[in-house]
Design goal:
With about 600 residues, this protein is α/β, with parallel strands linked by helices. It is built from 22 helices and 18 strands. Strand 17 and strand 18 form a beta hairpin.
């Protein structure tokens, strides 16, 4: 009995003392983590990485080239399975038409892509295509090519293996038919074209269209005119005439131009309607026409590129449905053309619906920007008027006038600086934020990409661009961050691009005090403005040199020169003389008509004036 009780007691005690073994969770967690890593690696491996080179025949300043490239980029970036790295190259044949330039570009491209070889090349317009026909095997060996150009320039059957054409067409003949319907009194057509590479290609391509319409219209071409002659002629055309814009990248004098600026100026100056052939030209001005859609063409090129990346065969693509009649409603009203006279199926742009309810936030932002811009201009005008009144009141005392003028100029520059910083750091940033949110809303489908929304986006882009330009024009940030030479170099470079002359700055960056730095920049700016208005120069050089006890500013040009005695009445030279006199300096002007002008300014250094 006792033994049996002890056994039962041990058994009972054993059951009560038993605890189940707990397994560690770490193996399971490690297995889950490993599975996630494998999934991530598989997804990453599934993404195809490709390199795309876009080779454009012309420069990036062309709005058409920019729009086409934007369409290509948007299309290829939307494919989640393919990550595309895009490189852009510009032959810029309008600015550099010589054969030597093309040969140098070929050598540069060979060296640049010798190791980093692309998977695909897009040739924009015929010159880039012709270059690849000759040099593809040495520049991009084995890379397939997508060619974009006018259909009438190509015989598809003659293309070698690996070339896929995407071909559209501009149809001046359709525009001429529309003119005959919309303006039955018109019997003369001024064809706007220049002497550039693209200008001549268009003249050749469309010669048949003009010949076919010679029974209805007489044609005159502007390729033998300077830009000034073209604008003057456009402002005096009779009402039995219309203008048709092809391309004007270079005039007879060799000056180069940007199409959107030419179209904008002609549309404002012309006494008759200006017709165009593609959508980006219509955005710059004019009445419209049978417009080819460049951004849609770019998206089609991007779709073909993705197919080539996936190894699919791609037959030639003809963009026959990528154009249509579109007209500017404002211009139709301006020229008294009724909608009922438009070709069937025509659409209108620049219409002005009332978007206040749906887009009031963005419209308010644009309105605030415009108000701030107006206030800024008003303040600047008020400061200028105050400065002139003070100068007239103190005309009897030159020393006092010079000192007061100097102080006012410095104050004005400080105010310009404050306003410029406020515009750039607050207004532009707020507009950019609004634009970004609107883009995100359209991308997410919250806001439909209707014409009115797209119009607001364009207004925001233009407003931000104008405000940035206004901020820079008010006060150069380089003057304060890097010094006098950098500010003059930036200002002169922008003027040279806008007005078409060569520009160079010589000398070293000198350590200058605020008053001397601001004054010399204002003087240089005034001289360059006068040069642009009157000199008609093709080369301008500015030098900033330090001599013992002196700072020397020299501005030279090869323009038509002028008579300093008859020009002293102008406010510009008076301003320069007063500012230089306020620093205790001197100004010497040498002009040898027609060999140009040299303006030499010497002012005491900061140490000497102390």
């Amino acid at each position: 009995m006792p033994d049996t009780s002890r056994r039962h007691q041990r058994a009972a005690t054993g059951r009560l003392a038993y605890r189940p073994h707990r397994r560690s969770p770490w193996p399971v967690l490690l297995l889950v983590l490993f599975a996630l890593l494998l999934q991530t690696a598989a997804a990453h491996a599934a993404i195809s990485h490709k390199k795309l080179v876009i080779l454009s025949s012309y420069g990036f300043s062309s709005a058409g080239v920019q729009t086409l490239m934007r369409g290509i980029t948007e299309s290829v970036k939307q494919d989640d399975r393919t990550e595309v790295q895009i490189f852009t190259e510009f032959l810029d044949l309008d600015s550099f038409p010589s054969s030597g330039h093309t040969e140098r570009m070929v050598e540069m491209l060979k060296a640049k892509y010798a190791v980093n070889r692309p998977d695909l090349v897009v040739a924009v317009f015929r010159p880039a295509h012709d270059l690849l026909l000759r040099y593809r095997d040495s520049i991009f060996p084995g890379a397939p090519v997508i060619t974009f150009d006018l259909k009438r320039n190509f015989d598809v059957s003659q293309l070698p293996e690996g070339f896929t054409p995407v071909l559209g067409d501009l149809r001046p003949g359709a525009v001429l038919d529309a003119i005959a319907t919309m303006q039955p009194r018109v019997n003369k057509i001024v064809v706007v074209t220049g002497t550039g590479h693209l200008d001549r290609l268009f003249q050749t391509a469309f010669a048949g269209d003009f010949e076919s319409a010679s029974g209805r219209f007489s044609f005159s071409h502007t390729d033998r005119m300077s830009y000034e002659e073209l604008c003057a002629m456009a402002s005096k055309l009779p009402n039995d005439t219309a203008m048709l814009y092809l391309s004007f990248s270079r005039d007879r004098g060799g000056m180069t131009f940007v199409s959107r600026e030419v179209i904008k100026e002609l549309a404002q100056q012309a006494t008759v309607p200006l017709y165009v052939l593609w959508d980006t030209a219509a955005e710059s001005g004019g009445i419209g026409g049978y417009l080819f859609k460049l951004e849609e063409a770019g998206k089609t090129i991007g779709d073909v590129a993705l197919k080539r990346f996936r190894g699919e065969r791609t037959p030639p693509v003809l963009l026959d449905d990528n154009a249509g009649f579109m007209f500017n409603e404002h211009e139709l009203s301006r020229w008294g053309i009724s909608r009922s006279d438009l070709p069937p199926g025509s659409s209108l742009y620049n219409r002005q619906p009332n978007p206040w309810v749906e887009y009031r936030v963005y419209l308010v932002a644009v309105g605030i920007a415009l108000v701030l811009q107006s206030v800024t201009i008003a303040l600047l005008l008020k400061n200028r008027q105050r400065k002139r009144r003070v100068q007239e009141d103190l005309n009897s005392s030159r020393d006092q006038l010079a000192a007061l003028t100097a102080e006012l100029s410095l104050s004005e520059e400080r105010e310009r600086r404050k306003i410029a910083v406020a515009l750039h750091d607050k207004v532009v940033q707020n507009l950019a934020l609004g634009k970004m949110r609107l883009d995100q809303a359209m991308l997410k489908g919250v806001v439909a990409p209707e014409p009115a929304v797209i119009s607001v986006c364009r207004i925001l882009d233009v407003t931000m661009h104008d405000l940035r330009e206004l901020s820079t024009d008010l006060s150069s940030p380089l003057l304060y961050e890097f010094g006098l030479k950098a500010a003059i170099e930036d200002f002169g470079a922008r003027l040279s691009v806008e007005h078409g002359f060569d520009f160079a700055v010589n000398g070293d960056e000198l350590p200058l005090g605020e008053e001397l730095r601001i004054t010399l920049f204002q003087v240089a700016r005034e001289l360059l403005y006068n040069l642009v208005k009157h000199a008609r120069a093709s080369m301008v050089t500015v030098s900033v040199v330090g001599e013992p006890g002196w700072v020397v500013l020299e501005v030279e040009d090869n323009g038509v020169g002028f008579d300093p005695l008859t020009s002293k009445k102008g406010f510009g030279l008076q301003f320069i003389n007063q500012r230089v006199a306020s620093l205790g300096g001197s100004i010497n002007i040498t002009t040898n008509n027609p060999k140009g002008t040299q303006v030499l300014i010497k002012v005491p250094s900061d140490q000497e004036r102390k």
